[in-house]
Design a protein that fits this description.
With 125 residues, the protein is of the alpha+beta class. It is built from 4 helices and 5 strands, in the order βαααββαββ. Helix 1 crosses helix 3.
Length: 125
């Protein structure tokens, strides 16, 4: 059962300027492995993290660096969650997260669908 969806769109040049103006921003938003990626990939990952927060219905207990987007061998993006962020997802009964990323024409977008195994709101109520 779908318990949440989220979508986000990021202007890549604007995001890149933000990273240049605020050098420590990347440390607050991305894991060490993610920080090695080019700006367009970081923008897509930022969009994915924002979309995840929207699918969860809020950011309580969610920490940016505990959300890592890692590719499967096929290239399909996947969330790797740790710490309190992983606990929030589990506590809300979410059993699967689906993620799609894209970047083109100076924009990066992400779409997230959160699923639970059974009926309910997905927030423990």
């Amino acid at each position: 059962m779908i318990v949440g969806i989220g979508v986000d769109l990021v202007d890549i040049p604007r995001f890149e300027r933000s990273l240049e103006r605020t050098p420590r921003l990347a440390e607050r938003l991305f894991s060490p492995a993610e920080r090695l990626l080019p700006p367009r990939s970081l923008a897509a990952r930022y969009a994915a993290k924002e979309a995840l927060i929207k699918a969860l219905g809020g950011s309580d207990g969610v920490h940016w660096t505990e959300i890592e987007i890692t590719p499967e061998p096929s290239g399909r993006p996947w969330f790797t969650l740790t710490g309190s962020t992983a606990a929030v997802v589990a506590d809300r009964g979410i059993t699967a997260l689906h993620l799609s990323l894209s970047h083109d024409a100076g924009l990066a977008t992400a779409y997230v669908v959160a699923e639970s195994a059974g009926p309910g709101r997905g927030d423990g109520r």
